[in-house]
Amino acid sequence: MRRSSPRLAALLLVLMAWGSAATAAQPGDEVLTYRWRLQGFLRGLAIFSMPADGSATLTHRDLGGGHESIELYLVSDRNEDGEYFRYGSERDATTGLALRAWSSSRWRGESKSREARIDQARVVDIASAILLLRRDPPRRPRQLEIWSDGRLYPVLVVPQEVEQKRLHGVAVAARRYSIRPIQLPQRRVWKGEIDLWLAADPAATPVAIRVERSLASVMLTLVD
Hints:
Elements: H1 6-15, E1 30-40, H2 43-49, E2 53-64, E3 67-76, E4 84-92, E5 98-107, E6 110-117, E7 123-124, H3 126-135, E8 142-148, E9 151-167, E10 170-181, E11 193-199, E12 206-213, E13 216-222
Parallel strand pairs: 7-8
Antiparallel strand pairs: 1-2, 1-13, 2-3, 3-4, 4-5, 5-6, 8-9, 9-10, 10-11, 11-12, 12-13
């Protein structure tokens, strides 16, 4: 029987919490498919005790009534026990107001989930931050609040230079946006980072996503 590292398991739970029960994609939903893999110092240890790569989807759907959801869902290629990680949120498509956010996972037969109602603007989770930057990429640093593990943290979105990302052997120009924690009086500091590469196409397609914590990071690369 494989033994898992508690630190590594906790790392993935924090990096990629994943929402309530899966919902099949419907006609009109945008579904982007990715491959994910662990990077960094802990990858070599992870492959012996837990999944180090797998597949992922980023799904955006119209819920009707002016509401929409965005959800990121990761599974392992060694998915023996229905293991998954999921992150998502529901938003008002007109105002951009966050309505609720959720995260859930199943790992080694243990299920965890969190959900919270949110009634303030400029709040994102990992998945909705991607949607926000696709629709309104900042030209200068922009402060936001990120929902993570049931708490809100101040973060700063910083636009970076255009880089060349290779997809299926083809170079794609994509601008990188970095989300970093910031320190404010009387506020907790988020222990995470996100980098997002948006292609220079009308949809601002996210061709790569990186979520980092401590000594490891998870890189997602667009497949379809």
